[in-house]
């Protein structure tokens, strides 16, 4: 099984131009050909052939015009004009039913031209009917595509629970708390965090905090899994609120809400301390990609061609030997450089961070990540209490350049292969998250997962568990293996990073929080 982290990605590399096909332009010369040449029209048709073709074209134009304009009111004809995409229930035999993202993208690109990479990624991941996350449980033990730290061992969530508890205590143990998790997967992490937090609060304080939970989850399949784990299936049904959110009550009696995006989180009152978790969430957000050319920044777009051998992902992984015969490299979609500026070219053009990068530089920018991190800071600043933990793989000091990869059945594949069937993931740009927030919050890290877990005391907890299982050698081996997997630099210990945000001037001392 592989985890979603990725090694050996070359940064800021120049793109080999053969990977990109520019959209073909109609030669300007063609329109200059004189109508008559050797007695033939356009050098090809006799006069009779030309007149016949002209008549057909004129008839088609006038039919289209009357369809569009109509006799009286253009709106009467709206239903008669072909819709895009054609509704899948259309009774017209000619209509092509769209029941997968490959057809959807093929038709879209045919009609409107190449798509921004972010639009492609958004549909692949969260299209309501055909998106990757919206249609399955990708973490399922047997049928899933990858595994994450909280699924490897509950000790991971326990360590986070200890961290939130100690920050909560250091802030005077506020009585009202809201845990907000972005992209909670199967709910395992928030389950382990809450269990540990509640246990510690009961044991070491006489405060019984009132805790509410907000889960930001795009997938209704995963919402159901989260509800099954966190709530009592018999006594606490999964309800839908008037605003269209889901809600229930956890096994510990907390109100729990499922929301679609960061915009749905109620700002809350100044009494509530928000404790925010984002584990492997930022790497699943859509990016825009650009290359610096002589004339300026050009956006990389997703183009469709019948079939190309796509070497886009650098499949540098032990589990996935790079092979030209690998069918996952044969894709219908691939990247192309926009020949002109697009509206998004403004993003790198106006930013100090990107403006002066040399010609040939390729960069990735994640506008959604910027919106999400700003919301997290707002949540901290509402009460001047609480904390944010962002855990992901990504770059600490470099701008990600060519990190997009597909993940399918525990191996890396082209991100353009079987859209909607393959998980997509990118490197998180931690430096950018820091730059954006450091004036509004105290920023710590990013530091490696191995270091953070050891600083919090994972070694002590693993010792305890191994002693407790002194008569079960097999269990002891499992505990030790999962510890190595989470912390060893060659496994998940180095590539995964922890970054924390705390309210500015929350504590009088400048001591970093535990773990950092
Ligand atoms: C890689 S999984 C990580 C799951 C979990 N945090 C873990 O570590 O096991 C990404 C999670 O984010 C959710 N997700 C992906 N894109 C999202 C979006 N745009 N809005 C809300 N949730 C999203 C997925 O449904 C899934 O729960």
Unreliable parts:
6-34, 90-94, 311-323
Structural class: alpha+beta
CATH C-level name: Alpha Beta
Give the % helix: 25-40%
Roughly how many Å apart are the termini?
30 Å
| Total number of distinct structural domains | 1
- CATH topology assignment: Rossmann fold
Q: What Rg do the Cα atoms give?
A: 27 Å
Overall 3D geometry? elongated
What is the typical, i.e. mean, pLDDT? 84
Count the DSSP helices. Answer: 15
Number of beta strands? 20
Fraction in beta strands: 15-25%
Bound molecules: S-adenosylmethionine
| Major beta-sheet overview | 10 strands, mixed
Going by CATH, the architecture would be 3-Layer(aba) Sandwich
Question: Which key phrases capture this entry?
Answer:
single chain; 516 residues; alpha+beta; Rossmann fold; 10-stranded mixed β-sheet; 5-stranded antiparallel β-sheet; 15 helices; 21% strand; binds S-adenosylmethionine
Report on this model:
The protein is α+β, with helices and mostly antiparallel strands and 516 residues long. It has one domain (106-312, 328-515): 3-Layer(aba) Sandwich (Rossmann fold). Helices cover 32% and strands 21% of the residues. The protein contains 15 helices and 20 strands. The protein has helices at residues 47-69, 101-112, 117-126, 149-152, 154-170, 188-204, 220-230, 346-350, 352-355, 367-383, 430-437, 449-456, 458-468, 473-487, 492-495; strands spanning 36-37, 40-41, 115-116, 176-182, 210-216, 239-240, 246-249, 255-259, 272-279, 288-293, 296-309, 330-337, 362-365, 386-395, 405-408, 411-413, 423-425, 428-429, 441-448, 496-503. Strands 4, 5, 6, 7, 8, 9, 14, 18, 19 and 20 form a 10-stranded mixed β-sheet that branches. Helix 5 packs across helix 6 (188-204), helix 10 packs across helix 11 and helix 13 (458-468) packs antiparallel against helix 14 (473-487). The chain is elongated and about 100 Å long. The site of S-adenosylmethionine (SAM) has 20 residues, from helix 3 and helix 4.
